[in-house]
Please model this.
Amino acid sequence: MAASGGRFLSAEEHAVVAAACARLIPARDPHPGGAAVGCADYIDGLLGAFGVEPPRIFAGGPFSGRAGGAAGFGDFLPLSRVEELAWRTRIEGSRGIAAREFNGPVRGWQEEYRAGVAALGADFTTVDAAIQDARLDAFPDFRAVLYRHACEGAYAAPEYGGNRDQAGWTAIGFPGDVQPRGYRDIEVSGRA
Amino acid sequence: MSDVDAVIVGSGPAGATAAEVLTGAGWSVVMLEKGRNHLLALDEPYGPLGHVSNDELKFLSRHFLGPDPFLEPRTFRHRESEGDRIFTGGVNNLPSTVGGGGFHADGKLPRFREVDFHARSELGPIEDADIVDWPVGYDELEPYYAAAERLVGVAGDHTANPFAAWRSGPYPMPPGADMYCAVLTSEAATRHGFHPYRAPTGVNSVEYDGRPACNNCGFCAFFGCPIEAKGDPVAPLRRALQTGRLELRTESYVTDVLIEPSGRRARGVRYLDADGSPHEVSAGTVILGAGAFETPRLLLRSGIGNPDVVGRYLMFHFQTYVLGIFPSRLHGHRGRSVTHLMDDPIVPDDLAAAAARAAGLPYFRGGIVEHGSGSHPIVEAIHLPPGAAHTRLMLESPMRDHMVAFTMQGEDLPQSTNRVDLDPTVRDVWGAPAGRVTFAPHRHEAACAAHWAPRLEAVLRDAGADSTFWVTSPPLEDAPRRFGRDPTPISRHIMGTARMGTDPRTSVCDPWQRVHDVENVLITDSSVFPTSTGYGPTLTIVALALRAARALAGLDPLRSTRPPDAPGS
Model:
């Protein structure tokens, strides 16, 4: 399962994941919903994290540039040997590699998504919302993985690939990272 | 000849404090930390690395500070009759990184009270618990508390808490900015006859020790500080490195304490480096500051310490969360996560005393109540159901922008059946047996929570909450309100697994924190606590480590004088 260019999903799979995220996080004014905030891009970037170097796991710091300072979040941090082992195992699965199976085999997210997306059906993007919901409900384990990742994609820092133009944060009135500007004391203690 | 005078296992507040004292006294020290270094550069001038950021995903979802539960799983069961385990994963994980538990804490640093050190003598026993006096008292520890507050840098108001123990002087800094939600709840608590006060916090309110004042970014509890406004434990670690006598080896996993053939002395430790290659360090003294979970695990693997006691009397804080949803937005994402505390459940009033008697208990030992804010957005999101409710509730933000959380850090009574031992099957990535927790709270903790939660709900309603509810962690096994499916205690306050005392038959360490049966092994973390008290443990860890390390280095004891007009009990 190659992850070329830091991506994993095919265009068709990406469309199914986006459609599913739109059901798990549906749009409601002023929230653009899971598809429009880029949850599928986040998930694709996670599944393909080891296609780029350093892997797209731990964003850099100390500042993003959104509240002053130089933009450092985009410079991802190198992983240690055991961190790479952990994250490759989570994403790729243990694949019979002894070093990854010290407590037994692990099914990876790439395999879960490939199988889960196939189970939702190639026509998932074209069927009615009620049918989409029923299909997601039929695979509760996959839906749980997808929902967790959709939440991360909607509200994590944009450098991880989702939360496009901070649309997730803007919708819910969360200002995101604020260093090095921070808040003045009156903004902390006052009512407004 | 040994390689160094001392080897220290763990770089958190316990190890960093010992390192500062010993290197300051001229000792050569190697410190071994199994986690990565994101805290400070290891060359002059030991500045920040720039890895710490306002990044919820990195810190709260991706185990940036460790331990990664895949690499270092822990297991849990309530009691032996449940079998080998009922849960495998993250159990009470404190950061596994340079800086340890100090890295992620929001730095509430209260002292204990006088009675906490002699609860058994003053208050008496409780059936089915092993409450004992500490082998050190408050008056002896006071100068070390004062020194700890100076070296970490604590901001607070020494006149604010009527229940506080006596102090030899004020805090080194005034308190920082009050959070709006805590202003509301403090006013209501005062109307209910309680005594909220501005929390002593190891976060700079003004420039201190060459580090800037906090700018209230709000990514405080469970995050590191990107601007080094939190002093614990970067300040002592940096000072130790500046002596030139501390060598900090990161990604170095200690497998064994090595014992001389006599069995009475340690000669050093064995560890695996980042590549997994084994090494040994020989040292005149071995200091364990790996935390109250990892220290007993290492003792058990090494066969050190009174086998009837090592790992036993594991204590957390029994946490009662009393939550209120307010009609207006509270902007709890601004500020230091918690800015006010109150000690009232620690000093029971007539109502609490009556409730204890009604529950068949001689007394309640509650805990500090933290006046805190809601959560961050990913945390809020994953606790909501998917679908239309997700978006509606994320827009309304009941758990993030409208919630106040009172957390009572209830005293957890010591029981010998509550313990850390070695799991028979589950392994960590280095091949060592995982640590296993066997833990069920005493009925005292449940009864105390059930008494205080409704009283705290009433405060929140008076402060303006539309609705209130409460839960505990660990969840009460028979409670109608279950806290998810995870049975493990959330508390990161872990104590008691190598308790200190004067009798080698009933304790692991002596009053100077030396292991009774291996004379040159010293434990400086909260493993040595005989009881948990109702206060956060960190300042007491630092104070005890100062005292123990100074004694080890042959430095004079610190002394202080109680002012004749000192407030407090």
